[in-house]
Amino acid sequence: MRATAIAHPNIALVKYWGKVDLTRNLPAVGSISITLDTLATTTRVDFDSGADSDQLFLDGDRASAERTSRVRVCLDLFRRFRPDLPAAVVESENSFPTAAGLASSASGFAALVTAVNAALESPLGADRLVEIARRCSGSSPRSLCGGFVELALVGDSTTVRSILDRRDWPLDVVIAVTSKAAKTVGSTDGMELTRTTSPFYHAWVTRSPGDLEAARTAIAAGDFEALAAVAEASCLAMHAAAMAARPGLVYWNGATVEGLHRVRELRGGGTPVFFTIDAGPQLKAVCEPGATDRVAAALAEIPGVVEVIRCGLGDGAMVVEA
Ligand code: DP6
């Protein structure tokens, strides 16, 4: 009962921010993302180690109690269906900074649930896997799929599916890393603060179905300008709602803001590029592959940008060793 799986981070173009049910981690809004290549989480799960309790090693070191307990919660969700599951040793490696707004929880839990399921003598079905991944982190089911992915709300549950293959619209993503420090307010806490205190939260939730529809239409038509418009609008609306919380959440630093303006200048000059920003200070610039060199060079020049990472679109989570 051992397996290894790999999963890539995803970046939401229409954002998830807010929950209707904290216990089940049920999102208040659907979301649309792109799965990346290049960056990856590789997770090995071993149920045969004879360990007394579930253990987590992250990038070779024993993980914090908080991270270990999130992994235990995930394993316990599997134990609801497989009560005899022994304690596991989980070893996970990220090829990028953890918890700095590069969606490490999404790729982390997608790799974990995929590896656990592959290690089971009788694996759970896809619906249960999506449910378990979502309970661990709302963005992680999207990393189970490749290319352009939609997480949809269906009743009091969620579904996830690829809405366009990465080969059908091979966009690139340039990540301008503006800080490698862990963020101060994680997504889960940030969402709850926004939901409970932001006067813009209701407006944010209400506009989401229109954004999802606009993004679906833009993706189906390969309409870059339309996708740029809705993705930037969704990102800024999410951050506006978060900034209006009490106390206001400002995930950006100066280089994030500079990058945002640089991306818009480039687009104004005819370069097909738009930005998105998650619950951290990194700026993600999505562009047509012909523009990647120009975008990467422009972002690298910004004072405060410490690293520029280039990605293409990637595949969903997969088992690499069972
Ligand atoms: C800003 O999936 O990390 O990246 O469900 O509480 O674990 P939890 O939150 P998480 O939130 C992601 C928020 C976001 C937007 C997005 O990816 O849709």
Overview of the structural elements:
By secondary structure, this protein is of the alpha+beta class. The longest helix is centred in the middle third of the chain and has 21 residues, at 201-221. The protein has two domains: 2-166, Ribosomal Protein S5, domain 2 (2-Layer Sandwich); 172-312, GHMP kinase, C-terminal domain (Alpha-Beta Plaits), CATH 3.30.70.890. The chain contains eight helices and 16 strands. Strands 8-7-9-6-1-16 form a six-stranded mixed sheet. It is globular. The model has no long low-confidence stretch (mean pLDDT 96). It binds ligand DP6. Ligand DP6 binds next to helix 4.
List the helices and strands and how they pair.
Layout: E1 2-7, E2 10-14, E3 19-21, E4 26-27, E5 31-35, E6 41-46, E7 55-58, E8 61-62, H1 65-79, E9 89-94, H2 104-119, H3 126-136, E10 148-154, E11 157-164, E12 172-177, H4 187-197, H5 201-221, H6 224-243, H7 254-268, E13 273-276, E14 283-287, H8 292-300, E15 307-311, E16 318-321
Parallel strand pairs: 7-9
Antiparallel strand pairs: 1-6, 1-16, 2-5, 3-4, 5-10, 6-9, 7-8, 10-11, 12-14, 12-15, 13-14
Bound molecules: ligand DP6.
Residues 12, 15-17, 25, 31, 105, 137-139, 187-188, 278-279 line the site of ligand DP6.
